[in-house]
Amino acid sequence: MISTFELSNHVVGLIIDKDIEEGNLEDIHEIILERISEFGKINIFCEIAKGHDVAFLCLIDELKFKYENSSNINKFAIVTDLTWLRAAMNINHLIVHTDIRPFEIKDRMQAIQWISE
């Protein structure tokens, strides 16, 4: 299940409570593109709930999506306990212009504060 919330008009919040696999990544992108068309530039808070995983091929698709839309995404906070995904997000800044910061789930409030600035 994907839950969405707004911290403000330009901040999109996503909480993903299922494994991210090839078939369901488009749902997430659709939500983001909808907000981009509405607000222009946005910030994204994305939390992957504990116990859920991300397929590696989805990470490649996500990199492509971020590259294509990086001029419309100012900040991207990824909150997850997946160590490998946080490490991958640390190198994203080499590919896209978006300010991307990974956070552990225990640091969720810090991520919300940063994304809302």
Automatic annotation (TrEMBL):
Q: Which Pfam families match?
A: SpoIIAA-like
Q: Which Gene3D superfamilies match?
A: SpoIIaa-like domains
Q: Which InterPro entries match?
A: SpoIIAA-like (IPR021866), SpoIIAA-like_sf (IPR038396), STAS_dom_sf (IPR036513)
What is the protein's given name?
SpoIIAA-like protein
